[in-house]
């Protein structure tokens, strides 16, 4: 057998003082452990370099388990995450840590009726008091009444402002380790959410709307800003990477940047250069969470020439994320911060300018003898 077909497996007894890099490099030999090893090596050797813009999508209840503070924030500080898309729930529960509230490790077999009677919330094996929700809600509603929030904005600006106020609370309370939102604020990492109404943050925004708040979350701003980030990623021979933790709506929102660029805006694009995903979803049920990189190629989300740079590891994200984080923090030098939040307007303006220029170019008519064409539904379209 040739080396191109595979590497010889040479198992050796595991030492007592093994480190995470040695563990992954030499003992993750097959199946999904091998996929995790391949992801760690791809990140270390190619993705986490200066010329790559790294977008991360986050779904599943990762921040209640503490991974916003323990894993994602360190990746941001080292310049390994340039922009993010997250469920609103992850950002909401991340705030508990920034506001100094306590969450506890329990077990998944507690009596939920009794927990309800005691005012205790359970997320599988994580438990915390109902007052944590109420006090987080009260904090959100208080700051959202400020002048800075009384306008139309996208979720990156919204979360940046939230992170600013959470960071101030962390300083006042002496919180030792900043949460994800506060860290993203400090390091200029824009965080978007694909479903701003689908979380307790969105629920509090809606409550204030009943009181006359002028805050409006505009998803069109998010669609165009994220497309602008992906569009700019390849300037000066740069590349774009999609790192997907879980699946769901954040996964699609990260990947749809490429169809937005070439399908909708008509600008030339070839798809993301790197696709890395941790998921426990099957592809054969038709759900987006389990959709493969090869399927994404058919949509133009992934560059077909870069399929060797696409890896899916079918495992629990709570296992994979801390291992991956420990590996790259050990193996990779910190990168220069891109501070994409600060560059949002310039990137947006460049996308808009190029789109309008492309839009004004004369298109080739299907039938030059016809001045008016119609869609299949019969709606007239002026040529």
Structure description:
By secondary structure, this protein is α/β, with parallel strands linked by helices. It has one domain (20-382): 3-Layer(aba) Sandwich (Deoxyhypusine Synthase), CATH 3.40.910. Helices cover 45% and strands 13% of the residues. The chain is built from 15 helices and 13 strands. The strands form four sheets. Strands 7-2-1-9-10-11 form a six-stranded parallel β-sheet, sandwiched between helices. A hairpin with a 5-residue loop joins β12 (372-374) and β13 (380-382). α3 runs parallel beside α14 (317-331). The longest helix is centred in the middle third of the chain and has 19 residues, at 155-173. The chain is globular, with a radius of gyration of 23 Å. The termini are far apart.
Main beta sheet: 6 strands, parallel
Number of domains: 1
The succession of helices and strands, N to C, reads: HHEHEHEHEEHEHHEHEHEHHEHEHHEE
Helical coverage, percent range:
40-55%
Strand order of the largest sheet: 7-2-1-9-10-11
CATH A-level architecture:
3-Layer(aba) Sandwich
CATH fold category name = Deoxyhypusine Synthase
Which stretches are low in confidence, meaning pLDDT under 50 for 5 or more residues running?
A: 364-383
Give the rounded overall mean pLDDT.
Answer: 88
Principal-axes geometry comes out as globular
Number of extended strands: 13
Structural class: alpha/beta
The CATH homologous superfamily is named: Deoxyhypusine synthase
The fraction of residues assigned to DSSP E strands is 5-15%
């Amino acid at each position: 057998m040739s080396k191109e077909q595979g590497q010889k497996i040479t198992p050796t007894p595991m030492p007592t003082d093994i480190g995470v890099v040695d563990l992954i490099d030499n003992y993750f030999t097959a199946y999904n452990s091998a996929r995790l090893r391949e992801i760690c090596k791809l990140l270390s050797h190619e993705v986490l370099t200066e010329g790559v813009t790294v977008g991360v999508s986050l779904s599943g209840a990762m921040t209640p388990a503490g991974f916003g503070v323990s894993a994602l924030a360190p990746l941001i500080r080292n310049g390994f995450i340039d922009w993010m898309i997250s469920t609103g729930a992850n950002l909401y529960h991340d705030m508990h840590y920034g506001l100094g509230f306590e969450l506890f490790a329990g077990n998944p077999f507690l009596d939920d009726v009794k927990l309800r009677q005691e005012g205790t919330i359970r997320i599988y094996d994580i438990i915390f008091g109902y007052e944590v929700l109420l006090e987080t809600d009260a904090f959100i509603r208080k700051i959202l009444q400020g002048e800075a929030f009384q306008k139309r904005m996208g979720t990156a600006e919204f979360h940046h402002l939230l992170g600013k106020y959470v960071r101030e609370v962390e300083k006042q309370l002496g919180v030792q380790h900043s949460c994800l939102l506060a860290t993203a604020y400090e390091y200029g990492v824009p965080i978007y959410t694909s479903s701003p109404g689908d979380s307790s943050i969105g629920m509090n925004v809606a409550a204030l709307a009943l009181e006359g708040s002028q805050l409006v979350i505009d998803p069109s701003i998010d669609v165009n800003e994220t497309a602008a980030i992906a569009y700019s990623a390849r300037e000066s021979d740069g590349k774009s990477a999609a790192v997907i933790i879980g699946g769901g709506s954040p996964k699609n929102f990260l990947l749809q940047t490429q169809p937005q660029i070439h399908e909708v805006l008509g600008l030339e694009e070839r798809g993301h250069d790197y696709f890395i995903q941790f998921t426990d979803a099957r592809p054969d049920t038709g759900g987006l969470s389990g959709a493969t990189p090869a399927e994404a190629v058919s949509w133009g989300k992934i560059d077909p020439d870069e399929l060797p740079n696409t890896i899916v590891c079918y495992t629990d994200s709570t296992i994979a994320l801390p291992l991956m984080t420990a590996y790259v923090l050990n193996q990779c030098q910190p990168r220069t911060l891109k501070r994409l939040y600060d560059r949002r307007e310039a990137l947006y303006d460049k996308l808009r300018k190029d789109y309008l220029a492309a839009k004004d170019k004369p298109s080739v008519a299907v039938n030059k003898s016809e001045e008016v064409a119609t869609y299949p539904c019969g709606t007239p379209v002026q040529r």
